[in-house]
Automatic annotation (TrEMBL):
<keyword id="KW-0028">Amino-acid biosynthesis</keyword>
<dbReference type="Pfam" id="PF00742">
    <property type="entry name" value="Homoserine_dh"/>
</dbReference>
<comment type="pathway">
    <text>Amino-acid biosynthesis; L-threonine biosynthesis; L-threonine from L-aspartate: step 3/5.</text>
</comment>
<keyword id="KW-0560">Oxidoreductase</keyword>
<dbReference type="GO" id="GO:0004412">
    <property type="term" value="F:homoserine dehydrogenase activity"/>
</dbReference>
<keyword id="KW-0791">Threonine biosynthesis</keyword>
<dbReference type="InterPro" id="IPR001342">
    <property type="entry name" value="HDH_cat"/>
</dbReference>
<dbReference type="GO" id="GO:0009086">
    <property type="term" value="P:methionine biosynthetic process"/>
</dbReference>
<dbReference type="Pfam" id="PF03447">
    <property type="entry name" value="NAD_binding_3"/>
</dbReference>
<feature type="domain" description="Aspartate/homoserine dehydrogenase NAD-binding">
    <location>
        <begin position="12"/>
        <end position="131"/>
    </location>
</feature>
<dbReference type="GO" id="GO:0050661">
    <property type="term" value="F:NADP binding"/>
</dbReference>
<comment type="pathway">
    <text>Amino-acid biosynthesis; L-methionine biosynthesis via de novo pathway; L-homoserine from L-aspartate: step 3/3.</text>
</comment>
<comment type="similarity">
    <text>Belongs to the homoserine dehydrogenase family.</text>
</comment>
<feature type="domain" description="Homoserine dehydrogenase catalytic">
    <location>
        <begin position="139"/>
        <end position="200"/>
    </location>
</feature>
<dbReference type="InterPro" id="IPR036291">
    <property type="entry name" value="NAD(P)-bd_dom_sf"/>
</dbReference>
<dbReference type="InterPro" id="IPR005106">
    <property type="entry name" value="Asp/hSer_DH_NAD-bd"/>
</dbReference>
<protein>
    <recommendedName>
        <fullName>Homoserine dehydrogenase</fullName>
        <ecNumber>1.1.1.3</ecNumber>
    </recommendedName>
</protein>
Length: 201
């Protein structure tokens, strides 16, 4: 990775991607302090180039060609927030084989292909971080793999899903109906437009 700068290729500019861009932009100083160098967005992949975006991004950074991210030698880290499973897996494997570290919020992908993705990452000396795919980003995975590394965990119990947590809390506290709270969660961007993966058994 470039020591002078961490350069990001962002796959997706929807609910989560927009949040990533605005956090990186708003917290540029803190990030630079923590990481030790500036963190910059070099390219952003979208499906529809004509869509209006609620973020302040130079048009030249936006592309609808995945190759512009995967084969850009200047990109160090690929952040995947586009969703999808089969083709997205292939994109991330290509990114790793090209020496790019990967961050993903994609629970479906990691549940099905996590082992293979981590294996390819190890073969290419790259990191894969997927904390955002579990429990709305509550730092559970890192606590388990690092903080509790010396412990032998036999069971974990709880609601490890941010959307479900929000829905159950609001139903309990306000007595609202499930449908009402799910709609609100979708409006707030906690629940996805297709909430199946979060709310179905
Ligand atoms: N929403 C949440 O609260 C939440 C929480 C945790 C994890 N996640 C995970 O984060 C990921 C993104 O969720 P989201 O809610 O942000 O989704 P979203 O709002 O639907 O955004 C998806 C973005 O990816 C782009 N995209 C999708 N398929 C593409 C393709 N084939 N080629 C190019 N661009 C493509 C879309 O482009 P256009 O804008 O041009 O359509 C859009 O910008 C999912 O894996 C989801 O499970 C979401």
């Amino acid at each position: 990775m470039s020591a002078a700068e961490v350069r990001i290729g962002l796959l997706g500019l929807g609910t989560v991607g927009t949040g990533v861009v605005s956090i990186i932009s708003r917290h540029q100083e803190e990030l630079r302090h923590q990481v030790g160098c500036p963190v910059t967005i070099k390219k952003v992949l979208v499906r529809d180039m004509k869509k209006n975006r609620p973020v302040d991004l130079d048009d030249s950074l936006i592309t609808d060609q995945i190759e512009d991210v995967l084969f850009d030698q200047d990109i160090d880290v690929v952040i995947e927030v586009m969703g999808g499973v089969e083709s997205t897996k292939e994109h991330l494997l290509t990114a790793l084989r090209n020496g790019k570290h990967v961050v993903t919020a994609n629970k479906d992908l990691m549940a099905i292909y996590g082992a293979e993705i981590l294996q390819v990452a190890a073969e290419n000396n790259c990191d894969v971080y997927y904390e955002a795919s579990v429990a709305g980003g509550i730092p559970i995975l890192r606590s388990l793999t690092e903080g509790l590394a010396a412990d032998r965990i036999t069971k974990m119990m709880g609601i490890v899903n941010g959307t479900t947590n929000y829905i159950l809390t609001k139903m309990t506290q306000n007595g609202s109906s499930y449908e009402e709270v799910l709609k609100k969660a979708q409006e707030l961007g906690f629940a996805e437009s297709d909430p199946t993966a979060d709310v179905e058994a």
